[in-house]
Structure prediction request, 161 residues.
Amino acid sequence: MENLWAPWRMTYILDEDKPEGCIFCLAGDGKGADDLVLGVGEHSLVMMNKYPYNNGHLLVAPRRHLPGLDQLSPEEMADLLATVRLSVQALREIMHPEGFNVGLNLGRVAGAGIEEHMHFHVVPRWGGDTNFMTVFGEVRVIPEHIRATYENLRPYFADLK
Prediction:
């Protein structure tokens, strides 16, 4: 039997001081609850997903606490999509994925974990990134520590305004 190491999970399991409130609203300060915020612009922000589907899984959200697209102003919509595009570019340059899943889940029944604050998921994909561990064991193999990925991506969002 082989071991699968995921040391950051222990920090979460033992952390009794989980933040209260919306993680996207907390991220507006540029650090967030877990110091995983990559950048905060005028209308949008980018942060690492603490529970990634894959390495480099980013969350892009409007700064305002909104549940859906129809509440966004035209400026917020344009800024949000520009930030999604910047996220894809940064991941492409740093991680060289072969493709992406980009999307949002509106409403709990659609899979939204935080339905009160809409957000895009930007997930880089590589051939073979889904294997038997995910299918049979419901375990994802994340080959790089989230902090290492954060440090590699952070410079691309430093000028986000």
Observations:
- The longest helix spans residues 74-95.
